[in-house]
Specification:
alpha/beta; 16% strand; Rossmann fold; eight-stranded mixed beta sheet; 11 helices
Length: 279
């Protein structure tokens, strides 16, 4: 039976979903920033037929513990290394956005504990990452302002509906999901990212990681015109690594499987890739 459990990392308690056959190989899922493990709900039932899905809430997100001041990439990576280090078998790591960056860094730290990776729309260089963050400052500030002013999760949901309800693709289900994510988020989560990007991103070098990690890797991205962060040039660069494959999902942006048009093609690409990983 699926259940949420707690993992006692050194620095913080992590909440995670445990779904699928207990004897199956582990597939560890890391969500995007300010979300929670439920971002993968549309994928988990299908993936759980073969894999033991372990979907984590990152520190400061969802039901995991808060760690004010300790939300750097190295902090999240340390949690991930601890988690996969205690598994009985090497895992496939799945990560979206910041979760994808963390997955790459975890694989570089403990390559013997990782047998494959699915990385969904991540910045591949520090320059690109910095540009993404700078362009998002206003929206992060708005999220936190709305969160701070809302006396309840229901009020927060209504405020978000007023701000974003008219945008294409925004549904009641999406607003409910985002409201819960934001309500549970440590309000200091963005501080290291926005106050000192160099310190936040210290240790992330995608090229060095790809040269270190020999496991097969699938990169997924959407369309740049719709908000995806990976470019055609970056995808061409990735294809220079023999263990890396790439797929662009049409009709969606950075959110990929969180958009209706992305759920089925993302799952199809993931399953085809995972089927090629030996049991």
């Amino acid at each position: 039976m699926p259940s949420e459990k707690t993992f006692d990392a050194v620095a913080v308690k992590l909440n995670y979903l445990d779904y699928g056959p207990e004897e199956a190989e582990p597939l560890v899922m890391l969500h995007g920033g300010a979300w929670r493990w439920q971002e993968y709900l549309s994928l988990i039932p299908s993936l759980g037929r073969r894999w033991r899905v372990l979907a984590l809430d990152l520190r400061g997100n969802g039901r995991s513990g808060w760690a004010p001041g300790a939300y750097r990439l190295k902090d999240f990576t340390g949690d991930g290394v601890e988690f996969v280090g205690r598994l009985d078998a090497p895992a496939v790591l799945v990560g979206h956005s910041i979760g994808g960056v963390i997955a790459l860094m975890v694989a570089a730290r403990c390559p013997d504990k990782v047998k494959g990776l699915v990385i969904a729309d991540v910045p591949l260089t520090l320059e690109t990452y910095r540009q993404v963050i700078e362009s998002s400052r206003a929206i992060f500030a708005h999220w936190l302002a709305v969160k701070q002013s809302a006396p309840s999760e229901q009020d927060l949901c209504l405020a978000l509906a007023g701000a974003y309800g008219g945008l294409p693709g925004v549904t009641s289900g999406w607003l409910l999901f985002f409201a819960t994510c934001l309500w549970q988020l440590d309000p200091t989560f963005f501080d290291p990212l926005l106050d000192d990007f160099d310190r936040f991103a210290d240790g992330f070098d995608c090229e060095a990681i790809l040269k270190t990690v020999a496991s097969p890797i699938l990169f997924l991205t959407g369309e740049p015109r719709l908000g995806a962060v990976m470019t055609d040039g970056e995808i061409a660069w990735l294809r220079g690594f023999p263990h890396v494959s790439c797929a662009r999902i049409g009709g969606v942006g950075h959110l990929l499987h969180l958009e209706n048009a992305g759920q089925a093609p993302v799952l199809t690409q993931m399953q085809a890739f995972l089927d090629r990983i030996p049991a």
